[in-house]
Amino acid sequence: MVNSMISLNTLKKKLVLIGLCLGPFTTVCAQDNPLGQPLLDSAGNLLEDAFIHIPLRQEDQAYADIDGAWMKDVLMELDQISLDDKNSGQLFWGRNLGTEAHAISQNWAEANFRRYGLQNIQRKTFDLNPVWVVDSWSISFNNGNEIFQLESARPPEKTVSTPEAGLEYELIWLGTGTDADYLGRDVSNKAVLIQDIPRPGTLRHSIRTEDSVARAYAHGAAAVGIVYGISDNFAVWQRTTGPGFNLGFEDGVKLRDRLGAGEKLTVSLNYQTHTVPDQTGDSVLGTLPGTSDENIIILSHIDGYFQSASDNASGMAVMMGLIKHFSAIPQSQRRRNLIFMSSLGHHSGPGARWLHDEKESAMADTAMVINLEHVALVRTKYWGPTLRKMNTVSPMRWWVWGSEDMLNVVLDSFQRFNVGVTANMESGASGEMGSLARDIPTLQVITSPEIKHTEQDTPEWVPAVGLEQIGRAYAKIIDGVNKLDRNNLLPAL
User: Fold this and answer.
1) pLDDT(112) > 90
2) CA–CA distance, 285 with 299 (Å, rounded to integer)
3) 368-418: per-residue pLDDT in tens?
4) Are 48-128+278-489 and 131-276 in the same CATH fold?
């Protein structure tokens, strides 16, 4: 009888423990792994040393001076310019065209050109569209009992001012904003919440491919709220053609669930903006002379939204790495002139289109153009509503316009330095390269991740090893192309 009582009591205790572990107090039974998170630093960011690093081949030791840590430090210099702009009180901050921060950035580029001995340093000046300035903004929500704000709420870029008293609309959830989402729905004079699915970022996202914003206004919506992403809480200033606002995924889900529970919510919008006309912006060019009259142009745009670490401090950092490397090589060993261009940018400006428009003169003796844009990013993987970083560099989209010999040089360099690319080459180039992609032999790798154009495009997303890999690959490509005559670089058309 006693043994039976002991067994019964033991069983009860086990059942209680099982209940605790399966119930709301599961963490009581969870045991912390004493190893912790060995690949993360104290802030939760992936350690630079954790990334897979492919050793240099013996025959490629000439590229050892193209150092990822050094280029990451360069990236941090541009990052600081953006942060200084934010700290100055700018609400739409970064290295945006027509702003003091952009001018400081180009001064920084010119100073580095001079530091490494580039010659014929010059500026090409462009007239800009009126520069958009945000004076104030407020976005809040109301359920009748409380007024609340959401961390990721942002106004649309380029929006005009609301009335001084602001605007207020009833809020409804509208899925992804397709025609099917409007069936049986009256959105007149309401603010619609539309989820924007990145594919993977703001380049091929669903509101663009589905034309969701224009459709909402066409159906009578008074305002459009864009819920960006399927994970995290990225803050982005995507444009709308009328009153609107942006939210990250986590904040958007909060509103969706409250609406789904039957709450009536309104959104209040108040933003005051103005534009500054008659502004100009510069591109900065400098030349590292070779031993012939032919050129290779290496360009990178310097403008960027917010910290813009990947887009495009990464490209500028690799440009400086290439300048440092090739300036240490005697001119007698450089076949072609290397023309480096810190482009003013294309986010709100003309970018490198002038090379196409003036190609008969600007590229008359040019053998190849390389575009350095979004060149290194950590690889990610979705895990539920979280975008998790991995300890490898993300593969990139790629473009080569040239001969088979040029292609062989490019692919060999990619393999040597572990530059991953998509299996299918793009049907055209994008960004700075888009307008001149087929004018002469051209080359770029580029990636457009979920953080593109968000306030979360920060340095921890750009691994030093990624900068190192692509920097060394481009240097090897330049050396390989310099062994080919110009006619042997042209595509077989």
Assistant:
1) yes
2) 9
3) 999 999 999 999 999 999 999 999 999 999 999 999 999 999 999 999 999
4) no
CB-CB contact of 260 with 173 (8 Å): yes
* Spatial separation of the C-alpha atoms in residues 68 and 464, rounded to whole Å: 4
Token pair in block for residue 413: 């360099």
CA dist., res. 126 & res. 410, Å (int): 33
| Residue 315 · residue 387 · CB < 8 Å | no
Percent of the chain with pLDDT over 90: 89
Structure tokens at 450: 């979920």
**Size of the chain, expressed as the number of residues it contains:** 493
Q: Which fold has domain 131-276?
A: Glucose Oxidase; domain 1 (3.50.30)
Superfamily the domain 48-128+278-489 falls into? Zn peptidases (3.40.630.10)
Q: How far apart are CA 300 and CA 343, in angstroms?
A: 6
pLDDT (tens digit per residue) in 240-288 = 999 999 999 999 999 999 999 999 999 999 999 999 999 999 999 999 9
The two structure tokens encoding residue 346:
């294309």
Phi-psi region of 184 (alpha: psi -120 to 50; beta: other; left: phi over 0): left
Q: What are the domain boundaries of the chain?
A: 48-128+278-489, 131-276
Which residues, in sequence order, are CB contacts of 210 under 8 Å at separation 6+?
176, 177, 178
Q: What is the dihedral of CA 489, 119, 476, 486, to 10 degrees?
A: 10
Asked whether 128 and 280 are in contact (CB, 8 A), the reply is: yes
Interatomic CA distance for residues 469 and 416, integer angstroms? 9
Both tokens assigned to 62: 């000439």
| Amino acid, single-letter form, for residue 473 | A
